[in-house]
Amino acid sequence: MVNPTPNLEPVVSRYFNLPDAWKIETVLKLGAYETARKALAGKPEDVAKMVSDAGLRGCGGAGFPTAKKWSFLPKDTKKPIYLVINADEGEPGTCKDRYILERDPHSLIEGIIMSCYAIKSNKCYVYIRGEYVIPTQRFQAAVDEAYAKGFLGNNVFGTSNYRVDITVHRGAGAYICGEETALLNSLEGKRGLPRLKPPFPAIVGLFGCPTIINNVETIASVMHIGRMGAENFSKWGGGTLGPHLYSVSGHVAKPGVYELPMGITLREIIYTYGGGVRGGKKIKAVIPGGMSAKILRADEIDVKMDFDSLKAAGTMLGSSGVMVMDEDTCMVKALLYGCRFFAHESCGQCSPCREGTGWALKIIERIYRGEGKIEDLDTLLDVAGRMEGRTICVFAEAAAWPIQSYIAKFRAEFEDYIKSGKSAGKETAVHAAH
Amino acid sequence: MANITIDGKQITVKDGSLIIEAIDQLNGDLPRYCYHPGLSIAGNCRICQVEVEKMPRTVIACNTTVTEGMVIHTKSGKATDSQKYALEFLLANHPLDCPVCDQAGECKLQDYYMEYGAYDPKFNENKVKKSKKAFSIGPTINLDQERCILCSRCVRFTDEVTKTHEFGMFNRGDHTAVDVYTELNNKYSGNVADICPVGALTDKDFRFKMRVWYLGKQKSVCPGCSRGCNISIETEKSRPYHLKKERVMRLKPIENPEVNKWWMCDEGRYAYKSIDIGRIEKVQARAAGRLEETTWENALVAAGKIVGEAAAQPSRWAFVTSSQYTNEELFLQKKFVKDVLRINRVAYSWSFDQGFEDNFLIRGDKNPNSAGAREIFGAGEDISQVVEAAKRGELDGLIVFGRDLSKYGADTLSVVRAKVKTILYSGVNVNATSNSADLVLPGASYAETDGTFTNFEGRVQRIRKALEPMADARATWKIVQDLAAGQGIIWKNKRAEDIFVSLAMESGAFKGMSYTALDPHGKIWSGPGAAQPAVAATAGAH
User: Fold this and answer.
1) Residue A6 has what pLDDT?
2) Are the C-beta atoms of A288 and A269 separated by less than 8 Å?
3) Does residue A224 share a domain with residue A255?
4) How are strands ordered across the β-sheet holding B422-427?
5) pLDDT, tens digit, for every residue of A378-403?
6) A352: domain range?
7) For tag attachment on chain B, is the N or C end more exposed, with fewer CB atoms within 10 Å?
8) Model confidence over B477-494: pLDDT tens digits?
9) Which residues pair with B251 in a beta bridge?
10) How high is the pLDDT of residue A131?
11) What chain B residue is nearest to A363 in terms of C-alpha separation?
């Protein structure tokens, strides 16, 4: 379900409900590719400046300022520069990029053309999550259409004298390939293992060349910034941080993808747009930014949903995957699901994460079976704390934070479960969008 | 250059150095599993954590570059905590089957646990079981996936050094396992057991033969080809003759950045058995057509007679030797030939010396000291010329050191034997020529003597005595000295080193060299008489 914001002209999601918007003929009538055409008539620096003025921050999870990331590219490299679009949307509770790929692929292609121009790249790889079959088909079809129209390839638009090529690559289903350097390895045909940093991809990236890796929504937003102007983009919806896609799932009445001004409160997302908790129940907990983000209790949902506010609240905006758990949710079972996911998806490279995720899973499984001991909670926290910050990539943090936050915020429930050997409530767990 | 401080010690290191390299320069003892100086950086074991002042978290020393003024702590509470935690994770699914593990005693899990162990393990779950326990992955190596800590050294070795790509990582998470795509069967396969920090990859040849704490170790040089890889000869030490007559248990490469880096080939590694097997153990003399055991005393009397005949008719005698001998031995042999026998027919090389070679370590010349022989003897004849002369009946006698003339065929040897009146043989191992000789003097193997070899690029390197000569065997330089003494020529060398001192005085190429100056990596000769110009070593991991 897609639920564009009432009373506001949608931006990134504007064609999500428009029939056949993935076809080029539909969107060409509405002015598609005009923004890119104009941008390519101007200077590359103008695109970058516009993105900087709009204050666009990466929508993949880390929220790094996009224009700043671009500025890390070496200035006078003799190697080709690559743009890689991270469409490996694997974070549980997140499905926003899927809508762009599936329902408005041309906005992404247009954003790619502009971004390639801005960073002086002629080649873009789009790495799409393996499970995204229809999004891949739709996006590939859109790329083919754009080539047929002369919007891609040599001399884009026939007048720019600028080349942009797009290669669509479907992943093989590993969560870790959403980590940008694992993605690069996978794209190179290697095992999807995160790389040691430094060097960072902007210096040594894909095939050893300078590479910028951006999220789907980020690059689609570049086009919208060009279309609307930086100021209109950032002031959209009365805010200062622009529009943002939130994937809302779990025990809400109206789950779906919502485009809302960045900085709206979590309460508004759930109650004003998500229709509240289904069945009129109370909220027990909310994960604000995908499975990896630390969980919030019901009394913490007045937090603003932007990068800095959530960081100040001890969690993160992450991929903006909001997962709501109602009062009947068993937190032991919820954590079991989380631990099972991370144990399954750890790439197995670094010892703390490889062993820690499996270890944590075994403990929580034991607790869930009713064989837990009170000391197990401290062992879990110990394992989580030892994983954190001691590995090549941030997967270990992502795996540690649910453990730490669930136990910290619901310790009494965990202790009760261990003592009684079963859940006090109806023992339901959140069922995320994925 | 960057000035940094490690555990209070100041050191200046090259810009761009890794912290772990700086620590190693100071001979620090930071734990590491995945880091190996000959391989790319993997950064996956996470145990080499150090505290760097002004950094919020500990960092891995193997992937952090030094910067000017950096202050590093390897033993602070923060650093050791991180190291300890990493070790506990590595041990979580390790089977702890040390009592039946062949790596025990040289296992880095054991070693580091003593120093960095938590001693209060928190892991209380069932361990991950891998599908197979110990299984063969090729002619030389067994793999135990459960013991593996997934440091990926073996994967990187076969990817980067041999470029044969047998190893890979399979599966994910705590089910990740090392395995092979194809049989591990390359010419350097034994090295993976050396670099495996735990008991996951064990050498079939050595497995269960000997607990490593019973091993004595001696630094030497592999005699298998003209590369001269530095090796450790590892021998039965405290329970002699436990395994009957096998004394040498294994050879291991020793790092020499100028010669073999950290590696050696399988051919060299497994060639040690001839030190203990197939030896000429006794002094023998032919009596009534049969070789009979005798004493050195009697043999030297007989030898004196043979050598006397040769010296009386030098044009009808030939001297055959081998560049398997040390510079010291060849030098005394040359003096013996030139000053005592005055024989002109000297041969030390033949076509059988040539074999497989690659562009890494293995050289086509299968002798360790051809350059030395060339320098000492000059070109010499080819052994085939001596054999032809013998077949034509031009020779009355042969003095043969370490060469088996039946390489030209058993027929050839019997023709030679029929035409030549006397053969004096000295060597290490039994062969058809020793069996057909009139007098057999058992020589010590390279593992039983001191000396030097000169490798293909003119690098003079020391070999050292790891064992006493087997049975009646004597160092070849002693045998030559004894033969000369039989003719009234007395050389007073007491050690191989004494001979080297004379060699360094007499031969231009060795000029100015001494045993102490040869350590630790050997020295390329540079005297005016150098037999061939020094060629830069091509051995390298990169």
Assistant:
1) 57
2) no
3) no
4) B290-293, B284-287, B439-442, B422-427, B397-401, B317-320, B345-349, B381-382
5) 999 999 999 998 999 999 999 999 99
6) 331-420
7) C
8) 999 999 999 999 999 999
9) B233
10) 96
11) B125
B172 vs A174: CB contact, 8 Å cut-off?
yes
Q: Do B44 and A191 touch (CB under 8 A)?
A: no
Q: What average pLDDT does the structure give for chain B?
A: 93
Contacts of B478 (CB under 8 A, 6+ apart): none
Residue B539 has pLDDT above 70, yes or no: no
Residue A362, chain B, CB below 8 Å: the answer is: yes
Question: What residues contact residue B195 under an 8 Å CB cut-off, 6+ apart?
Answer: B36, B39, B153, B154, B157, B262
Quote the pLDDT of residue A402.
97
A66 touches B: beta carbon within 8 Å: no
Residue among A358, A386, A390 whose CB faces B173 most closely: A358
| Overall fold of domain B284-524 | Rossmann fold (3.40.50)
- Co-location of A209 and A274 in the same domain: no
Residue B461 predicted with pLDDT over 80: yes
With respect to residue A164, please indicate whether it lies within any of the assigned structural domains.
yes
Does the pLDDT value for residue B244 go beyond 70? no
* Structure confidence by residue, pLDDT tens digits, B367-407: 999 999 999 999 889 999 999 999 999 999 999 999 999 99
What chain A residue is nearest to B90 in terms of C-alpha separation? A351
pLDDT in tens, B76-124: 999 999 999 999 999 999 999 999 999 999 999 999 999 888 888 889 9
CATH architecture entry for B2-92: Roll (3.10)
Distance separating alpha carbons of residues B413 and B398, to the nearest angstrom: 12
The CATH number of whichever domain residue A349 belongs to comes to: 1.20.1440.230
Cross-chain Cβ contact B172/A390 below 8 Å: no
Q: Are residues A101 and A175 in the same domain?
A: yes
Q: What is the DSSP string of B509-520?
A: TTTT--HHHHTT
Interface test with B, best of A193, A353, A355, A378 (most B CBs within 10 A): A355
Same domain? A50 vs A163: yes
CA atoms within 13 A on the CB side of A48: 15
Residues A44 and A81 in one domain: yes
Residue B540 has pLDDT above 70, yes or no: no
The Cα–Cα gap between A405 and B272 comes to 60
Same domain, A252 and A230: no
**pLDDT at residue B237, rounded to an integer:** 76
- The CATH number for A115's domain is 3.40.50.11540
Residue A252 lies in a domain: yes
Say whether B2 sits in a helix, a strand or coil. strand
User: Considering the entire predicted model, what is its pTM?
Assistant: 0.93
**Contact between A324 and A274 (Cβ < 8 Å):** yes
Write out residues in chain A with pLDDT < 70, as ranges.
1-7, 425-434
Q: Which residue in A344, A366, A390 is closest to B46 by CB distance?
A: A390
- The answer to whether A379 contacts chain B (CB < 8 Å) is yes
In this complex, do A348 and B93 lie within 8 Å of one another by their Cβ atoms? Answer: no
CB contacts, 8 Å: A196 with chain B: 41-43, 63
CB contact under 8 A, A347 and B173: yes
Residues A355, A357: Cα–Cα separation, whole Å: 6
A174 touches chain B (CB under 8 A): yes
Q: Are residues A208 and A64 in the same domain?
A: yes
Residues A174 and A37 in one domain: yes
Q: Out of A307, A326, A345, pick the residue that ends a domain.
A: A326
Predicted local confidence at residue B537, as pLDDT: 41
Asked whether residue A289 is domain-assigned, the answer is yes
